[in-house]
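May I ask you for just one protein sequence along with its backbone structure tokens in two labelled lines?

_____
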Amino acid sequence: MGDEIQPRSYWRWSKHDFFPGDSFQNWSAYRSALSQTFTRLKERVASRSEDADEIVELRKESENEMKRCLSWWDLIWFGFGSVIGAGIFVLTGQEAHEHAGPAIVLSYVASGISAMLSVFCYTEFAVEIPVAGGSFAYIRVELGDFAAFITAGNIILGSIAGSAAVARAWTSYFTTLLNRHPNSLRIHTNLIDGFNLLDPIAVAILAITSIIAISSTRRTSYLNWIASAVNMVVISFVIIAGLAHANTSNLTPFAPHGAKGIFVAAAIVYFAYGGFDNIATMAEETKNPSKDIPLGLLGSMSIITVIYCLMALSLSMMQKYTDIDPNAAYSVAFQKVGMKWAKYLVALGALKGMTTVLLAGAIGQARYATHIARVHMIPPWFSLVHPKTGTPINATLLIRLVSACIAFFSSLDVLASLLSISGLLISMMMAVALLVRRYYVRGITPRTNLLKLTFFLLVIIVSSVGTSAYWGLDPNGWLGYTVTVPLWFLATLAISVLLPQDRTPKVWGVPLVPWFPSLSVAINVFLMGSLGAQAFIRFGICTVVMLIYYIFFGLHATYDMAHQPKKPTTSRILEEDMGSARA
């Protein structure tokens, strides 16, 4: 008992709780740390975490444990809640009208394949490293501290901006239910355009969903079941009623803008699949991660992919793509076939969907932030888990308070494509991390095999970038693909034939390695290249801001964390994780 961590008050605000490292004890220590920036950067770029550190050591930073209360059934419904929001109602009509035509179905198939490949990678990692950090923890183990920081920055940016955007959309759909103009419940001001419509309702819905998520993970799961079930009823109605009023002549021409239109739309509608990674962050609260996470992730995403394709098909067959209203596709389509009342049902479905996205998002985003704080990339105060609720209250407040401030003032239109790049980049890095995990094990893999793996991975990434760039420069060309596609194929084949897998998954593994992860890299890079120059400019600016933060704070905080003495391990953590591994 002498080694047990003594409980402390959860609500504390000392400097040590925010800046515990030696580098931040005083200005002299901080100046000394800055003078060692280059040396420390070299160490952190090369450093990689261990599975045991993520599973056991870092969890001690939270002082209290999250409660294992979720089953595979809960995770499937959390998958529905996290993923199915307003995106399917908004993006389908927009992209069918502007880019893909009736071939929007193929856009959902393409983006669904990409999402499923990423789900495979997440599932293997989540089973083997069942922690709250999700992709951040997995990339930290396989690609190192610096790559994990880039991931962390994109996760936090996406969490904050994404929650704010959904909250503002919630207001718009709520006013539709009241049969009023979308901006009628917002406060009009004389601020600059884009920041002149203040949205107190968005702030209120963020506050309500956050309070529910903070109170209890189990209670949040029950409410998510109910809201998601209502949403599924609405979606079933949309599919059945749409197909009942189908006219096959509306499918001609099927792809009016050709393959380019299909893939441009695929890059946009991919983000209707966003949010599945939240399931992986619930591993610490899952009763049996090795069984429940594969069922929850793969089960929910398989069903969602089919639902999305059927919804896209019903809209395309109900109305000619040129007549689809890009702003209210389903509502207008039902009105055209004499079901004007159905627009309220569609608005209700979208509203319920956004509510569950915010509810499940409050769970997943906070757990990401908790694990990021455990390694001190953000102040460790945000890693604390409340002893009674078993939830990370501070991390939830971090994400949601900033989201509420942005949602109150900004429409966030400028961040939409930026968030797209962030999600695709993380998915691509996850695929690379999985290949590294299978083919490189420290102390086992020979250096020559490591060099070969590094070279082949670079060829896969560069050839994928080349394919995407050539597509953007000459969508109707073919000559460039005769170079880039064979290079990708040969590099993947070389990994398969020339390199042995030095690690075998204990419970569940991605099938057809290295082909599936390599294909995931290629598809994610290809979709990134479809987003346009402005998205990359904004992403570059945000990345520079992240790097400045890392150089002046994150680098030194994580360096101090890596060199501090390890805390004593509680027997309960060890017993639980050994039990999960055996299961």
In short: The beta strands are 187-188, 197-198.
